Amino acid sequence: MRRPVVGIICNQNVLEGQYPVYTAGQMNTDAVSEVAGCVPLLIPADPRHVSVPELLETCDGFVFTGGRPNVHPEEYGEPETEAHGAFDRARDAIALGLIRACVARGQPILGICRGFQEVNVAMGGSLYPEIRDLPGRMNHRMPPEGTLEEKFSNRHAVTFSENGVYHRLMGAREVMTNTLHGQGIKACGQRVVVDGVAPDGTPEAIYIDSAPGFTLAVQWHPEYRAAADPVSRPLFSAFGDAARDWARSGAARPVQVA
Hints:
Layout: E1 5-9, E2 11-15, E3 19-23, H1 26-35, E4 39-43, H2 52-58, E5 61-64, H3 89-105, E6 109-112, H4 114-122, E7 126-128, H5 148-151, E8 156-160, H6 165-170, E9 174-177, E10 184-187, E11 192-197, E12 203-208, E13 215-218, H7 232-249
Parallel strand pairs: 1-4, 1-5, 5-6, 6-13
Antiparallel strand pairs: 2-3, 7-10, 8-9, 8-11, 11-12, 12-13
Protein backbone atom coordinates (compact mmCIF):
# COMPACT_ATOMS: atom_id res chain seq x y z
CA MET A 1 0.00 0.00 0.00
CA ARG A 2 1.18 3.51 -0.79
CA ARG A 3 2.01 5.83 2.05
CA PRO A 4 -0.81 8.30 2.80
CA VAL A 5 -0.26 11.85 1.62
CA VAL A 6 -0.41 14.51 4.33
CA GLY A 7 -0.78 18.13 3.32
CA ILE A 8 1.34 20.48 5.45
CA ILE A 9 -0.20 23.94 5.44
CA CYS A 10 2.44 26.60 4.73
CA ASN A 11 2.71 30.27 5.63
CA GLN A 12 3.54 33.15 3.32
CA ASN A 13 6.99 34.51 4.05
CA VAL A 14 9.78 36.63 2.57
CA LEU A 15 13.26 35.19 2.07
CA GLU A 16 16.23 37.51 2.57
CA GLY A 17 13.89 40.47 2.83
CA GLN A 18 12.69 40.43 -0.77
CA TYR A 19 11.90 36.98 -2.18
CA PRO A 20 8.31 35.77 -1.52
CA VAL A 21 8.09 32.13 -0.45
CA TYR A 22 5.74 29.61 1.15
CA THR A 23 7.34 28.04 4.20
CA ALA A 24 6.89 25.28 6.74
CA GLY A 25 9.53 24.04 9.15
CA GLN A 26 11.51 20.92 8.31
CA MET A 27 10.47 19.67 11.74
CA ASN A 28 6.96 19.21 10.33
CA THR A 29 8.06 17.18 7.31
CA ASP A 30 10.34 15.05 9.51
CA ALA A 31 7.52 14.28 11.93
CA VAL A 32 5.02 13.46 9.19
CA SER A 33 7.47 11.21 7.31
CA GLU A 34 9.44 9.57 10.11
CA VAL A 35 6.83 9.28 12.87
CA ALA A 36 3.43 9.38 11.15
CA GLY A 37 4.80 7.31 8.26
CA CYS A 38 3.18 9.48 5.59
CA VAL A 39 4.31 11.45 2.53
CA PRO A 40 4.67 15.14 3.49
CA LEU A 41 3.31 17.52 0.84
CA LEU A 42 3.86 21.26 1.35
CA ILE A 43 0.70 23.23 0.54
CA PRO A 44 0.84 26.88 -0.59
CA ALA A 45 -2.17 28.04 1.42
CA ASP A 46 -3.43 30.62 -1.05
CA PRO A 47 -6.79 30.54 -2.89
CA ARG A 48 -5.02 31.76 -6.05
CA HIS A 49 -3.30 28.39 -6.29
CA VAL A 50 -5.39 25.76 -4.49
CA SER A 51 -8.99 25.19 -3.49
CA VAL A 52 -10.50 23.26 -0.61
CA PRO A 53 -12.10 20.60 -2.87
CA GLU A 54 -8.79 20.03 -4.67
CA LEU A 55 -6.92 19.60 -1.41
CA LEU A 56 -9.51 17.17 -0.04
CA GLU A 57 -9.07 14.95 -3.09
CA THR A 58 -5.27 15.22 -3.15
CA CYS A 59 -4.43 14.50 0.49
CA ASP A 60 -5.42 11.90 3.06
CA GLY A 61 -4.91 14.22 6.03
CA PHE A 62 -3.61 17.65 6.94
CA VAL A 63 -1.23 19.24 9.44
CA PHE A 64 -2.06 22.85 10.22
CA THR A 65 1.32 24.21 11.27
CA GLY A 66 2.42 27.01 13.52
CA GLY A 67 3.82 30.28 12.22
CA ARG A 68 4.31 33.92 13.10
CA PRO A 69 1.19 35.20 11.27
CA ASN A 70 -2.00 35.03 13.35
CA VAL A 71 -5.58 34.37 12.34
CA HIS A 72 -7.14 37.72 11.48
CA PRO A 73 -9.60 38.81 14.22
CA GLU A 74 -12.24 39.63 11.60
CA GLU A 75 -12.63 35.84 11.29
CA TYR A 76 -14.11 35.82 14.81
CA GLY A 77 -15.86 39.17 14.71
CA GLU A 78 -13.33 41.41 16.43
CA PRO A 79 -11.43 44.48 15.20
CA GLU A 80 -7.74 44.35 14.32
CA THR A 81 -5.37 45.85 16.90
CA GLU A 82 -1.59 46.18 17.15
CA ALA A 83 -1.59 43.39 19.73
CA HIS A 84 -2.85 40.91 17.12
CA GLY A 85 0.47 41.03 15.26
CA ALA A 86 1.03 39.97 11.66
CA PHE A 87 -1.50 38.13 9.49
CA ASP A 88 -1.68 35.74 6.55
CA ARG A 89 -5.10 36.37 5.01
CA ALA A 90 -4.47 33.93 2.16
CA ARG A 91 -3.90 31.13 4.67
CA ASP A 92 -7.06 32.17 6.54
CA ALA A 93 -8.99 31.85 3.29
CA ILE A 94 -7.86 28.25 2.77
CA ALA A 95 -7.29 26.85 6.25
CA LEU A 96 -10.55 27.71 7.97
CA GLY A 97 -12.77 26.25 5.26
CA LEU A 98 -10.51 23.23 4.93
CA ILE A 99 -10.78 22.51 8.66
CA ARG A 100 -14.56 22.68 8.56
CA ALA A 101 -14.66 20.40 5.54
CA CYS A 102 -12.34 17.83 7.15
CA VAL A 103 -14.34 17.84 10.38
CA ALA A 104 -17.57 17.27 8.44
CA ARG A 105 -16.31 14.33 6.41
CA GLY A 106 -13.96 12.73 8.90
CA GLN A 107 -10.69 13.47 7.10
CA PRO A 108 -7.85 13.55 9.66
CA ILE A 109 -6.41 16.87 10.83
CA LEU A 110 -3.72 17.77 13.35
CA GLY A 111 -3.48 21.39 14.47
CA ILE A 112 -0.28 22.83 15.90
CA CYS A 113 0.02 26.27 17.58
CA ARG A 114 -1.54 28.60 14.96
CA GLY A 115 -3.23 25.46 13.63
CA PHE A 116 -4.71 24.89 17.11
CA GLN A 117 -6.08 28.42 17.02
CA GLU A 118 -7.38 27.92 13.47
CA VAL A 119 -9.36 24.87 14.54
CA ASN A 120 -11.06 26.88 17.27
CA VAL A 121 -11.81 29.84 14.98
CA ALA A 122 -13.04 27.57 12.18
CA MET A 123 -15.61 26.17 14.60
CA GLY A 124 -16.81 29.64 15.62
CA GLY A 125 -14.49 30.37 18.55
CA SER A 126 -12.40 33.44 19.38
CA LEU A 127 -8.84 34.21 20.53
CA TYR A 128 -7.03 36.42 23.00
CA PRO A 129 -4.41 38.53 21.18
CA GLU A 130 -1.84 38.24 23.98
CA ILE A 131 -2.07 35.62 26.72
CA ARG A 132 0.69 37.12 28.90
CA ASP A 133 -1.35 40.33 29.37
CA LEU A 134 -4.19 38.46 31.12
CA PRO A 135 -4.28 38.43 34.95
CA GLY A 136 -2.80 35.26 36.37
CA ARG A 137 -1.41 33.99 33.07
CA MET A 138 2.22 33.11 32.40
CA ASN A 139 4.29 34.19 29.42
CA HIS A 140 3.81 31.44 26.81
CA ARG A 141 5.95 33.10 24.14
CA MET A 142 9.19 31.77 22.67
CA PRO A 143 12.22 32.86 24.70
CA PRO A 144 13.82 35.78 22.83
CA GLU A 145 17.35 34.48 23.34
CA GLY A 146 19.06 31.12 23.25
CA THR A 147 19.71 28.20 20.94
CA LEU A 148 17.01 26.33 19.08
CA GLU A 149 17.22 23.59 21.69
CA GLU A 150 16.70 26.14 24.46
CA LYS A 151 13.75 27.79 22.71
CA PHE A 152 11.99 24.47 22.08
CA SER A 153 12.80 22.94 25.45
CA ASN A 154 9.95 21.86 27.75
CA ARG A 155 8.74 24.72 29.92
CA HIS A 156 5.45 23.79 31.55
CA ALA A 157 3.13 20.90 32.31
CA VAL A 158 -0.13 20.15 30.51
CA THR A 159 -2.80 18.32 32.51
CA PHE A 160 -5.33 16.22 30.59
CA SER A 161 -8.89 15.32 31.54
CA GLU A 162 -9.21 12.06 33.45
CA ASN A 163 -9.76 9.23 30.92
CA GLY A 164 -10.05 11.81 28.13
CA VAL A 165 -8.79 11.54 24.57
CA TYR A 166 -5.27 12.77 25.35
CA HIS A 167 -4.97 10.86 28.62
CA ARG A 168 -5.71 7.62 26.77
CA LEU A 169 -3.41 8.55 23.89
CA MET A 170 -0.44 9.56 26.06
CA GLY A 171 -0.96 7.06 28.85
CA ALA A 172 -0.47 9.89 31.36
CA ARG A 173 -2.60 12.64 32.83
CA GLU A 174 0.26 15.14 32.94
CA VAL A 175 3.05 15.75 30.44
CA MET A 176 5.73 18.40 29.90
CA THR A 177 5.65 20.52 26.74
CA ASN A 178 7.37 23.47 25.11
CA THR A 179 5.56 26.77 24.68
CA LEU A 180 6.07 29.26 21.84
CA HIS A 181 2.80 31.14 21.39
CA GLY A 182 1.38 34.55 22.19
CA GLN A 183 -2.31 34.03 21.46
CA GLY A 184 -4.74 31.52 22.91
CA ILE A 185 -8.37 30.46 23.09
CA LYS A 186 -10.79 33.05 24.45
CA ALA A 187 -14.16 31.40 23.73
CA CYS A 188 -14.38 27.84 22.45
CA GLY A 189 -16.03 27.18 19.11
CA GLN A 190 -18.98 24.86 18.72
CA ARG A 191 -18.11 21.29 19.72
CA VAL A 192 -14.55 22.29 20.64
CA VAL A 193 -13.61 20.36 23.79
CA VAL A 194 -10.67 21.53 25.89
CA ASP A 195 -9.01 18.31 27.02
CA GLY A 196 -5.70 19.69 28.35
CA VAL A 197 -4.64 22.89 30.12
CA ALA A 198 -1.45 24.61 31.28
CA PRO A 199 -0.93 25.37 35.00
CA ASP A 200 -2.40 28.87 34.47
CA GLY A 201 -5.56 27.46 32.87
CA THR A 202 -4.62 28.23 29.26
CA PRO A 203 -6.17 25.64 26.89
CA GLU A 204 -3.41 23.48 25.38
CA ALA A 205 -5.16 20.44 23.87
CA ILE A 206 -8.53 20.25 22.10
CA TYR A 207 -10.62 17.98 19.92
CA ILE A 208 -13.98 18.27 18.15
CA ASP A 209 -16.84 16.51 19.91
CA SER A 210 -18.68 13.86 17.84
CA ALA A 211 -16.43 14.39 14.80
CA PRO A 212 -16.31 11.27 12.61
CA GLY A 213 -12.52 11.45 12.24
CA PHE A 214 -9.24 12.47 13.91
CA THR A 215 -9.54 16.15 14.93
CA LEU A 216 -6.84 16.79 17.52
CA ALA A 217 -5.00 20.08 17.99
CA VAL A 218 -2.38 21.22 20.49
CA GLN A 219 -1.05 24.63 21.41
CA TRP A 220 2.55 23.47 21.84
CA HIS A 221 4.98 22.29 19.11
CA PRO A 222 5.09 18.47 19.06
CA GLU A 223 6.95 18.44 15.75
CA TYR A 224 10.21 19.30 17.56
CA ARG A 225 12.22 16.05 17.78
CA ALA A 226 8.96 14.15 17.43
CA ALA A 227 10.64 10.78 16.91
CA ALA A 228 12.37 10.95 20.29
CA ASP A 229 9.79 12.77 22.38
CA PRO A 230 7.40 10.56 24.45
CA VAL A 231 4.58 13.11 24.08
CA SER A 232 5.03 13.90 20.39
CA ARG A 233 5.52 10.36 19.12
CA PRO A 234 2.09 8.97 20.13
CA LEU A 235 0.37 12.08 18.76
CA PHE A 236 1.95 11.81 15.30
CA SER A 237 1.68 8.01 15.30
CA ALA A 238 -2.07 8.18 15.98
CA PHE A 239 -2.47 10.84 13.29
CA GLY A 240 -0.57 8.64 10.81
CA ASP A 241 -2.82 5.69 11.64
CA ALA A 242 -5.88 7.85 10.98
CA ALA A 243 -4.45 8.97 7.62
CA ARG A 244 -3.80 5.32 6.69
CA ASP A 245 -7.36 4.41 7.60
CA TRP A 246 -8.63 7.24 5.39
CA ALA A 247 -6.37 6.23 2.48
CA ARG A 248 -7.58 2.61 2.69
CA SER A 249 -11.27 3.48 2.89
CA GLY A 250 -11.37 5.87 -0.05
CA ALA A 251 -14.26 7.57 1.72
CA ALA A 252 -14.12 10.82 -0.25
CA ARG A 253 -17.69 11.89 0.47
CA PRO A 254 -19.15 15.11 -0.96
CA VAL A 255 -18.94 18.03 1.45
CA GLN A 256 -20.43 21.50 1.50
CA VAL A 257 -17.56 23.96 1.87
CA ALA A 258 -18.51 27.06 3.83
